[in-house]
TrEMBL record:
This is EAL domain-containing protein. Residues 24-278 form the EAL domain. The chain holds residues 726 to 1016 of 1016 of the full protein. It comes from Massilia agrisoli.
């Protein structure tokens, strides 16, 4: 009896696995086609300069417009792209697209407008068809700091010479580097001694809790103080309320990003925001204390 039951369980288990494998295979081939068929999009979320309240940068966030119109978020497909290696091509596309928009918006504003992109750890692995980002910027005549590259602490957990050299090459080429989701990764901070990081991005989990959780507030405060002592700039992620905005401004956080200022927007929408409403936040001296 137990043998038969075991066999049934095994069959059930196998068919579940098979289904999952089929789904992955289908998703992989759809994603492969997505790029050729222009189904990938970049949406842009404003980043606010606390000094003057202007939209001074944007983060490019990847979206997949599925046939039929549904919009897939990175959580639904970036993992597969990483496992299959498609992330190399997609990541290069993200870079070129971000560079083009940065160029357009810098021209429109008459000053450099930086776009930041997320770079997966997989993109730091050796790849036969690696694209030379620095040469690409040179050839298109873009200011090199028009691109900031966001990496997570996971990449730095084991800072190999390979990763170190690749980061260094980007920076020699003038690109800036941010540590995304700072404070959530499994990592020591020794990489801060070896790498010349430009920005720390305080993870949304701290920002969303900090007005009612002492620990989150202390961590946020401490990250800002530490970053400034190390000569780095700080970007707070996930700012959703005026209370959070005002508190972060009072702590001298440099930049703010979150739904309070804007969701990730289509390029045309983002451009309207840039052109028509550059000041989303009053400068600190004009901030009203929360009532
Ligand atoms: P991330 O780089 O930490 O990006 C911030 C995420 O937080 C975005 O989610 C954004 O929509 C969301 N967000 C921003 N402000 C708020 C807020 O005020 N409240 C809330 N609840 N959420 C907010 P999204 O677009 O779903 O991206 C998720 C992650 O996917 C990103 O996290 C990044 O790690 C990854 N990702 C996005 N685009 C790319 C890409 O082009 N390449 C790679 N490799 N990864 C990407
Ligand atoms: Mg990011
Ligand atoms: Mg982040
Ligand atoms: Mg985050």
């Amino acid at each position: 009896r137990s043998k038969a039951a075991g066999r049934n369980q095994l069959t059930f288990f196998e068919s579940g696995m098979q289904e999952a494998a089929m789904r992955r295979l289908k998703l992989t081939s759809e994603l492969r086609r997505a790029q050729a068929d222009d189904q990938l999009e970049l949406h842009f979320q404003p980043i606010i300069d606390v000094e003057n309240g202007s939209v001074c940068k944007a983060e490019a966030l990847l979206r997949w417009r599925r046939p039929g119109g549904a919009l897939a978020l990175p959580a639904e497909f970036v993992g597969i792209a990483e496992e299959t290696g498609l992330i190399h091509e997609i990541g290069n596309w993200v870079f070129r697209e971000a560079a083009a928009w940065s160029q357009r918006w810098s021209g429109m504003l008459g000053r450099p407008f930086q776009v930041s992109i997320n770079k997966s750890p997989v993109q730091f692995q050796p790849h036969a068809r690696a694209m030379d980002w620095v040469s690409y910027l040179d050839a298109s005549g873009l200011a090199h700091n028009s691109i900031a590259v966001e990496i997570t602490e996971g990449l730095l957990l084991n800072l190999t010479d390979e990763v170190f050299d690749k980061l260094h090459e980007l920076q020699r080429g003038g690109m800036e580097v941010s540590i995304d989701d700072f404070g959530t990764g499994y990592s020591s901070m020794t990489y801060l001694k070896r790498l010349d990081i430009d920005y720390l991005k305080i993870d949304r989990s701290f920002v969303s809790e900090m007005m009612h959780d002492r620990t989150s507030q202390t961590i946020t405060e401490t990250i800002i103080v530490m970053a400034h002592k190390l000569g780095l700039k700080v970007i707070a992620e996930g700012v959703e309320s005026a209370e959070q905005r005002d508190w972060l401004a009072a702590q001298h956080c440099d930049y703010l990003q979150g739904f309070l200022f804007g969701q990730p927007l289509l390029p045309a929408e983002f451009e309207q925001l840039l052109a028509g409403q550059p000041f989303l936040m009053a400068p600190p001296h004009r901030l009203q204390s929360p009532s």
